[in-house]
Amino acid sequence: MSGEKTFKVDGVRLSGSLTDPVGDMPVVVFAHGSGSGRFSPRNRHVARLLQDVGLGTLLFDLLAPDEEGDRRLVFDIPLLSARLCEVTMQLLDGVRTIAYFGASTGAGAALHAAAEPDADITAIVSRGGRPDLAGSRLSAVRAPTLLLVGSLDTTVIDLNRQAAELLECEHELVIVPGATHLFEEPGTLDAVADHARSWFVAHAHNP
């Protein structure tokens, strides 16, 4: 199954790069934020570190190339969530379990999608995310959720703290020392990957 994949969703074709998991480990679906994508070096670096412990990964773009310039779509969380749900359903035809890794607005979409009544997501990790964009649906999320925020990303820290108060599932907020919003400082992205893979592995067989 590993390789380039195309998902037909909502009348558009979304491209992705899939790496199979080892055994019954989940596939971690990356939901990117604005200005990022499946070819982002940061996303691919984290994906490789997740793959090192047997996790599968799917890096794909929630918007088609001709949609990416429309700022309204970038922040259209219900649209992004619906597309993520549809890709998840298509992916479940070939894999057993799925987790979400969301960044920036993609984290809001991931949590919004995971709040669906029939969502069967093993775990969620948010990196510098905007979980607040999931709004009132946060209380319906059942998947264990890890919120990772840079210590220098003060506005997003506050938004994550507010969102954490609305989560009723198992959750944890971790502040990564010395990191700004994009985790570009030396060692900070590796710290994100370490936290993420520990969380995903610990909840790999979450019922």
Automatic annotation (TrEMBL):
SUPFAM superfamilies, per database record: alpha/beta-Hydrolases
Entry keywords, A to Z: Hydrolase
Keyword Hydrolase set for record: yes
Molecular function terms, GO-annotated: hydrolase activity
Cross-referenced InterPro entries: AB_hydrolase_fold
Top-level taxon of the source organism: Bacteria
Descriptive protein name: Alpha/beta hydrolase
Species for this entry: Rhodococcus spongiicola
